[in-house]
Structures are given as structure tokens and as C-alpha cells.
Amino acid sequence: MNYPVFIFHELVLRFSYVNRQIGRYISSTIENGECLIRTTSGKISIAQDLLEKQYKDPSQISSQQLQELASAFQAE
């Protein structure tokens, strides 16, 4: 599925509330059910099902999930 770009911007914004080092959205690629989001200061990998949740009903993503994903951010 092709996701609208605002989905990625929203996720990066939500992650940045947890980890301010994440930066701003630059680009994303999806391969084999994983999405790699590049930001101004690094990258973060998330499962494609999380994109579906953000697209259909963002409230399905718990604050704990956001914290876990934000802590997996890889600075470059």
C-alpha cells in the first residue's frame, strides 16, 4: 500500500515527544513488511502494521509502543 506522507510526519512527531533527538522527517522506504524512516538526525525502523494503525486509528498505538520505538532510534 502507498501511504500518504502525512502518516510518516505524524509518527516522527509522536516519536519526538518521547525522544527529542529524533529530528524531522526526510524520507521512508518499505521493504518486506518493515518501514525505515529517515530523519534529519538518524533513522528508525518500524513494522508496517504500525503504519496501518497510524493511518486507520492512531489511538491504537500505545504510549508504551511509542516509547519502545523511539528508544530504538539510531542516530547518525
Provide an overview of this structure.
This protein is an alpha+beta fold. The chain has one domain (5-75). 42% of the residues lie in helices and 28% in strands. It is globular. The chain starts with a helix and ends with a strand.
- Domain count: the total is 1
Outline the low-pLDDT stretches.
none
Task: Report mean pLDDT, rounded to a whole number.
Answer: 95
Order of helices and strands: HEEEHHE
Order of strands across the biggest sheet?
Answer: 1-2-3-4
Q: How far apart lie the N and C ends?
A: 28 Å
Largest sheet geometry: 4 strands, antiparallel
- The total count of helices amounts to 3
Percentage of residues in helical conformation: 40-55%
Estimated radius of gyration: 11 Å
- The number of strands is 4
> How would you sum up the global shape?
globular
Provide the structure class: alpha+beta
Which percent band covers the strand fraction?
25-35%
Write a concise keyword list for the protein shown above:
about 40% helix; alpha+beta; about 80 residues; 3 helices; single chain
